[in-house]
Amino acid sequence: MMSSSKIPLITTGLSGLVGSTFRDAYSDAYEMTNLDITHPTQPVDITSYDQVSQAIGNHPAQTIIHLAAFTNVTAAFDQTNDEDGIAYKVNVLGTENVARAAKESGKHLIHISTAFVFDGTKDTLYTENDPTNPIEWYGKTKALAEEVVAQIMPDNDWSILRIDFPFRSQPSPRPDIARKNIQALKNGYPLFTDHFFGPTYLDDFSRVLDFFVTSKTAGLYNCSSGEKWSDYELGQALINTLDLPYTAKTGKLDDYLKTLSRPYQRNTAMDTTKLTKILPFTQKSIEESLSTIILEE
Asked: What does the pLDDT look like over 270-286, one tens digit per residue?
């Protein structure tokens, strides 16, 4: 039974880092129906079109936020080119099923993607006009998912939002980039000075999601911070902002790559000019965002 005071909304992946942040921030505004294989009474496997279609078909929601994804990059690399593997099934087949059901029921689809669709060789910020060229299987499956959405959905009925290395203010159900960085500082691990990314502050990204749900703005958007940070720079900023009793040590990505079998993007930072032109609010800078972090006891 839907509450008359809340807007019905279909989601996937609501229990993850990104989804749980949005859920906690907007549970009073939206009546969220989350399609989840672990649901105790109404499980939905997004790799099964019949289950997805049945769950979405007659639902009163006008919009679907598709967050569910296999995001373990190293585990995905071990499945490279395996279309029977869980990474491909969830990220590509699952997205295809959600898109097909969204199209057939006339719903707007908001698909969450990643900067890992890029190869990481660009020195400056990636824009929406840059071609995708993933260098590992996770990025490949997410690039294929983007193509599936654009191919299946009518032009005005889809939004693809790319994020990169997310973190949030509240304690995290699993370590985000800020908490991982803090743990590395605590353990005395070196932080790369030559690996760059664009952290995504999830408290603001939840507001971005709300904007896209209410406006149904269509198209492809980079939705990170619009900034470029190295691991070392982020570590130093965390020390300074949160007054942490640690010292940041410098390290090199090239040294780490000698211990790693999979490729690693050197830069995934994205330009967000297209997004900032349409948002009715200004996102916090990363420095401002770091000051909101609540550390676990």
From this structure: 999 999 999 999 999 99
pLDDT at 296: 80
pLDDT at 2: 54
Inter-residue contact 111 to 68 (CB < 8 Å)? no
Q: Which residue has the tokens 């470029």?
A: 228
Which CATH number characterizes residue 101's domain?
3.40.50.720
List the domain range (segments joined by +) for residue 39. Answer: 7-169+200-227+269-284
238 is a domain residue: no
Gap between the Cα atoms of 64 and 42, Å rounded: 18
196-197 and 229-230 beta bridge pairing: antiparallel
Question: What is the CB neighbour count within 10 angstroms for residue 84?
Answer: 7
pTM (2 decimals)? 0.96
* All residues at 6 or more sequence positions from 46 whose CB lies less than 8 Å from its CB, including other chains: 12, 35, 37, 52, 68, 90, 94, 97, 98
Question: How many domains are contained in the chain?
Answer: 1
Residue with token string 């780490």: 256
Q: What is the pLDDT of residues 141-158, one digit of tens each?
A: 999 999 999 999 999 999
Q: What is the pLDDT of residue 173?
A: 77
86-111 confidence digits (pLDDT tens): 999 999 999 999 999 999 999 999 99
205-242: buried (b, 16+ CB within 10 Å) or exposed (e) per residue?
A: bbbbbebbbeebbbebbbbbbbbbbbbbbbbbbbbebe
